[in-house]
Design goal:
single chain; alpha/beta; Rossmann fold; five-stranded parallel β-sheet; about 15% strand; globular
Length: about 150
């Protein structure tokens, strides 16, 4: 039973950087690892994409064809992925028992007001993956008390 590591967090919090680092680390210790890019706005990955949502739909085409902005385009792209789940399932089958990192988009609406990404996560679990959210990525905002970071670990 393969593992799925769902990397989530707000935009700019380092999700792709984390995926790149984990890919390098797991490869260095001899563990087979693949990264799946679920963010159609992420067109500059440093890691090799085993699967990339941009092979199914591109954000630029969606924005032009559907007259949507970037956030609406990301929502639309994930709806397309949800409706074309066979594409994802076939791609994941080809990865075998690899440890799979899913680089997810960061728009909060995808988690609070929309069900496509949640449904995709459930589908991944039904395929037999042990789904984990072991990472809590965040952005530290400027404050008067920048030296005290104890709140991060609370």
């Amino acid at each position: 039973m393969p593992f799925a590591h769902l990397v989530v967090g707000p935009p700019g919090s380092g999700k792709s950087t984390y995926c790149d680092g984990m890919h390098q680390f797991l490869s260095a210790i001899g563990r087979k690892c693949s990264v799946v890019n679920l963010d159609p706005a992420n067109d500059r990955t440093n890691y090799p994409c085993a699967l990339d949502i941009r092979e199914l739909v591109t954000l630029e085409d969606i924005m032009v064809d559907e007259e949507l902005g970037p956030n609406g385009g990301v929502l639309y792209a994930l709806e397309e992925l949800e409706h074309n789940k066979e594409w994802l399932e076939q791609g994941l089958k080809g990865l075998g028992e690899d440890y799979v990192l899913f680089d997810c988009p960061g728009q909060v609406e995808l988690f609070t007001h929309h069900s496509s990404l949640r449904n995709i996560f459930f589908r991944i679990q039904k395929l037999g993956y042990r789904v984990r959210f072991p990472v809590r990525l965040f952005t530290v905002f400027e404050s008067q008390d920048q030296a005290d970071v104890s709140w991060i670990y609370s």
